């Protein structure tokens, strides 16, 4: 069996959806930490992303998903198999940022010399301060970090996707401490096992393909040969369509993959150029 660690909490729903697009369907329960997979070779367990890299390093899991931030925070020695850039709200990295209250006099990290900073990522913050040659007290925050400045601490290091929560709590961002995204990581010994390595690499390929398909759709259409050049010119310059012969030799079929955002403008233009039988379809995976 391949022992897989899945992140429980804010990333859980988006991760399970990603696995579903990749072809792995998991059944979970709100009362259980077990994730039953329709692939008989995979057994899953839900655990906090903050702990994942430690358990993968120790071999409790053969493979797991967690953020670059928690790998760095835990100082874990694991194999980073694949970058999977997605988050709970969007398909983009998250940032750990150094922030202070809007009313704070501090303008840069240098101003925090001798001050106090609260964060969940103590090691990452200490490394950041060391790079900037700033000595400050860094304390671990058990939560509600945004409520701690300015009464309890002078600044915070907090994670954000859009910065909206920090702005709502009247914080001003001074700097990005670390940009992070989800990674598929593996145990070093597991990657030495040929069977496990192949399964892990297959999983990585399919997960990456599911992410690459995000925001893209397929488009099929039929075109009379007389209007083929006109229709092809409507397609984006970087798009390389597949053109196939049909039983009716006067027509050809065109198939193309493109960004979904372009389709609402493109379909009417294709229709006006002479395309017929236009079909738009969703994509689960795109493998380059």
Textual characterization of the structure:
- Helices cover about 30% and strands about 35% of the residues.
- The chain is an alpha+beta fold.
- The chain has three domains: about 1-90 and about 180-210, Periplasmic binding protein-like II (D-Maltodextrin-Binding Protein, domain 2, 3-Layer(aba) Sandwich), CATH 3.40.190.10; about 95-180, D-Maltodextrin-Binding Protein, domain 2 (3-Layer(aba) Sandwich), CATH 3.40.190; about 215-280, Alpha-Beta Plaits (2-Layer Sandwich).
- The strands form three sheets. It has a seven-stranded mixed beta sheet, sandwiched between helices.
- Helix 1 (about 10-20) packs across helix 6.
- The chain is globular, with a radius of gyration of 24 Å.
- The model has no long low-confidence stretch (mean pLDDT about 95).
The gist of it:
The chain is of the alpha+beta class and 288 residues long. It has 8 helices and 16 strands. The protein has 3 domains: 121 residues, D-Maltodextrin-Binding Protein, domain 2; 86 residues, Periplasmic binding protein-like II (D-Maltodextrin-Binding Protein, domain 2, 3-Layer(aba) Sandwich); 67 residues, Alpha-Beta Plaits.
Total number of β-strand segments? 16
Order of helices and strands: EHEEEHEHEEEHEEHEEHEHEEHE
Structural class: alpha+beta
Write the CATH homologous superfamily of the largest domain.
Periplasmic binding protein-like II
Number of domains: 3
Assembly level: single chain
How much beta, percentage-wise?
25-35%
Gap from first CA to last CA: 29 Å
CATH architecture assignment name of the largest domain: 3-Layer(aba) Sandwich
Rounded mean pLDDT is 93
- CATH topology of the largest domain, anyone? D-Maltodextrin-Binding Protein, domain 2
Q: What is the CATH domain class of the largest domain?
A: Alpha Beta
Helical content, roughly? 25-40%
Gross morphology is globular
Query: What's the tally of helices?
Result: 8
Largest beta sheet, briefly? 7 strands, mixed
Q: How many whole angstroms does the radius of gyration measure? A: 24 Å
């Amino acid at each position: 069996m391949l022992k897989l660690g899945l992140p429980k909490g804010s990333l859980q729903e988006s991760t399970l959806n990603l696995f579903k697009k990749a072809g792995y369907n998991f059944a979970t329960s709100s009362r259980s930490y077990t994730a039953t997979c329709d692939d008989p070779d995979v057994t899953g367990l839900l655990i906090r992303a903050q702990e994942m890299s430690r358990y993968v390093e120790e071999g409790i899991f053969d493979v797991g998903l967690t953020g670059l931030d928690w790998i760095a925070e835990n100082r874990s020695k694991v194999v980073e198999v694949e970058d999977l850039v997605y988050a709970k709200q969007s398909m983009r990295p998250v940032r750990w940022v150094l922030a202070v209250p809007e009313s704070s006099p501090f303008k840069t990290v240098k101003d925090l010399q001798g001050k106090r900073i609260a964060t969940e990522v103590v090691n990452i913050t200490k490394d950041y301060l060391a790079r900037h040659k700033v000595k400050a007290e860094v304390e671990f925050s058990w939560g509600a970090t945004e409520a701690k400045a300015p009464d309890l601490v002078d600044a915070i290091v907090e994670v954000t996707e859009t910065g909206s929560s920090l702005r709502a709590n009247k914080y001003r961002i001074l700097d990005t401490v670390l940009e992070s995204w989800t990674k598929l990581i593996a145990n070093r010994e597991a990657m030495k096992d040929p069977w496990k390595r192949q399964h892990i690499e297959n999983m990585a390929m399919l997960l990456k393909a599911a992410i690459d398909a995000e925001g893209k759709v397929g488009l099929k259409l039929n075109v009379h040969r007389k209007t083929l050049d006109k229709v092809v010119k409507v397609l984006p310059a970087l798009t390389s369509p597949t053109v196939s012969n049909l039983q009716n030799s006067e027509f050809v079929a065109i198939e193309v993959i493109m960004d979904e955002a372009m389709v609402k403008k493109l379909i009417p233009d294709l229709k006006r150029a002479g395309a017929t039988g236009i079909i738009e379809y969703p994509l689960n995976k795109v493998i380059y």
